[in-house]
Design brief:
178 residues, alpha+beta, Immunoglobulin-like, nine-stranded antiparallel sheet, 4 helices, 9 strands, 20% helix, elongated
């Protein structure tokens, strides 16, 4: 009887030494080809009903000046709102395509709940691919932007409109420049 157990243990021991079967071959599935995203559809109807441009406002001071930026995290700001306290000017700049940013100037239209203002935007010296407009710190459009009911639209020819939420950062920049 002992021999039978020894034989059984020997067979079990040998069975334990056998390599496990190879795993089944993984099936390689190729990713679908990347399609170019379609151009954004033009927005129609009342601009007050358009969705906000994705992003958040940030604010910071750098010496005597301050800047509020709006944009999606991890990307360049879509809109910069900078106070030049010494010259009492606010510069509103927005991201633009290389073609528009290389043009000598473009019309920038600012819509608020109480007024609309057209300003001339020129390529930014500090940031390529941005168009900016200098606005006097006492200009009524700045108050209209700070107190607009919920949103401000910044529209530049040839670009998708930017619909900004009216957070406190706009008012802070205006106050810093006055």
């Amino acid at each position: 009887m002992q021999t039978r157990y020894i034989t059984l243990f020997a067979l079990l021991g040998l069975a334990a030494c056998v390599a496990p079967p190879p795993p089944p071959a993984t099936k390689i599935v190729s990713a679908p080809p990347l399609l170019a995203s379609p151009p954004p559809q033009p927005l129609t109807g009342d601009w007050n009903d358009w969705p906000f441009t994705p992003g958040n406002w940030t604010y910071r001071r750098d010496g005597r000046n301050s800047i509020a930026q709006f944009g999606a995290p991890g990307r360049n700001a879509t809109v910069n709102f900078r106070c030049d306290a010494q010259n009492r000017r606010v510069t509103l700049s927005r991201e633009a395509s290389p073609r528009e940013a290389s043009a000598p100037s473009a019309r920038m239209v600012i819509h608020t709940s109480s007024m609309t203002k057209t300003v001339v935007a020129t390529p930014s010296d500090a940031h390529p691919f941005y168009l900016g407009a200098d606005i006097a710190a006492t200009a009524p459009i700045l108050d209209a932007m700070a107190f607009s009911r919920g949103r401000v639209l910044v529209d530049v020819e040839g670009q998708q409109p930017v619909i900004l939420p009216t957070w406190a950062e706009i008012a802070r920049i205006v106050e810093d420049c006055r």
